[in-house]
Write a structure and sequence with these properties.
The chain is built from three helices and eleven strands; from the N terminus they run H-E-E-E-H-E-E-E-E-E-H-E-E-E. The chain is an alpha+beta fold. It is globular.
């Protein structure tokens, strides 16, 4: 009897927590739709992210976009008209940015496998007006042969910066066998 009651409480709490998160996403989505009705500059840049299960724009220079812990969209970014909806769910790459063209430091969180582990990517780039940019994450697969040790290391994780339909920058993070930690390094295209 105690087990049944415990399971019932657990299921009830799980339902309530998931309903709260859905409500938060709904509130954020409606606030973004309201902000989209305002007119903003025509020389803006559109910035998307893709390739992972989910990705979030953490910040742009010093402006927070999506909170790391709550996954809520910052109200200041919404009021300035920077955040737009793609039509997908907010937790499935549902946001993109529309920002004035200039140089920014962008910090993007990619979730390649699940929401429990984020890959954080930092880049400084000069964005040109009236262009569409996409940050696309992928694993760089290679056909390698050799010893079991050589082929067992994870393949590098890469992020391409695509301007319209052309890749203009590529960053890869090779796996460091000694430390297990590495950083994204820009590659020649």
């Amino acid at each position: 009897m105690i087990k049944v009651f415990g399971y019932s409480v657990f299921i009830g709490l799980s339902f309530i927590l998931s309903a709260c998160q859905s409500t938060q996403h709904f509130v954020d989505a409606s606030r973004i739709k309201d902000a989209e009705k305002k007119q903003f500059s025509q020389n803006n840049v559109q910035i998307y992210c893709s390739g992972a299960e989910n990705c979030e724009f953490d910040r742009m220079n010093n402006i927070k976009i999506v909170d790391q812990n709550s996954h809520r969209v910052n109200s200041k970014a919404i009021k300035k008209g920077y955040v737009k909806l793609t039509g997908d769910a907010l937790d499935k790459n549902g946001l993109y940015l529309t920002i004035p063209a200039q140089q920014y430091e962008m910090v993007i969180r990619f979730y390649p496998i699940s929401q429990q582990h984020a890959e954080v990517f930092h880049v400084i780039h000069q964005f040109k007006p009236n262009q569409r940019y996409t940050f696309k994450m992928y694993r760089k697969r290679s056909q390698s042969s050799g010893s079991l040790l050589n082929v067992s290391a994870p393949t590098p994780l890469c992020v391409d910066l695509i301007q319209e339909k052309r890749t203009i920058r590529r960053f890869c993070r090779p796996y460091d066998v000694v430390t297990g930690v590495s950083e994204y390094v820009e590659q020649k295209i």
